[in-house]
Amino acid sequence: MTQPERARSTDAPSPVNPLPPWRRRRVLGLVGAMVATGLTVVWLFVVPEQADQTHGLQAAAIRWGHPATWALLALFGALVALDAPKPIRDTVAWASLACYAAFWAGLLL
Fold first, then answer.
1. Which segments of the chain does DSSP mark as H helices, in order?
2. How far is CA 46 from the centre of its chain?
3. What three-state secondary structure class fits 2?
4. Which DSSP symbol is given to 15?
5. Which residues have C-beta within 8 Å of that of residue 25, sequence separation ≥ 6?
6. CA triple 94-98-102, angle to 5 deg
7. Per-residue pLDDT at 93
8. Backbone torsion region of residue 29, taken as left when φ is above 0, otherwise alpha when ψ lies between -120 and 50, otherwise beta
9. pLDDT 10s per residue in the chain (109 long)?
10. What does the domain layout of the chain look like in residue ranges?
11. Angle formed by the axes of helices 3-11 and 21-45, to 10°?
12. Rg from Cα positions in the chain
């Protein structure tokens, strides 16, 4: 297979999924961003009971860690849909993981 044929074969829709790979990433990124945005709103109003029982940084981690995680995941989905550079997407994904770790640390400590 020549180089142009190989490039065309990866962009061709498969029999199972008629969308080309770049369009599947865009659709999945947008759907993921919408779901994560909805969960961000939910977690802004649903707060674990421990947030009222703690103070300072621990209370902030419990109160805002989970919504921040989902907001960053929504941003990540939008960046995937927009085909942003990988280092930017990776940074947002790691920031989301750090928020989630802070949330759990606040709950467990």
1. 3-11, 21-45, 50-53, 56-81, 86-108
2. 19
3. coil
4. S
5. 80, 81, 83
6. 170
7. 97
8. alpha
9. 454 544 555 555 556 767 677 778 899 999 999 999 999 999 999 888 888 888 999 989 999 999 999 999 999 999 999 999 999 999 999 999 999 999 999 999 8
10. 20-108
11. 40
12. 19
Residue carrying structure tokens 């990776």: 90
Number of other residues whose CB lies within 10 A of the CB of residue 78: 19
- Phi, psi for 108 (deg, rounded to 5): -90, -20
Q: What is the pLDDT of residue 1?
A: 46
Closest-CA residue to 101 (of 51, 59, 66): 66
Q: Which amino acid is at 70?
A: W
Residues 75, 37: contact at Cβ < 8 Å? Answer: no
Say if residues 104 and 61 touch (Cβ distance below 8 Å). Answer: no
Task: Give just the sign of the alpha carbon dihedral 75, 80, 81, 83.
Answer: positive
Q: How many Å apart are CA 38 and CA 32, to the nearest integer?
A: 10
Which residue type is seen at 36?
A: A
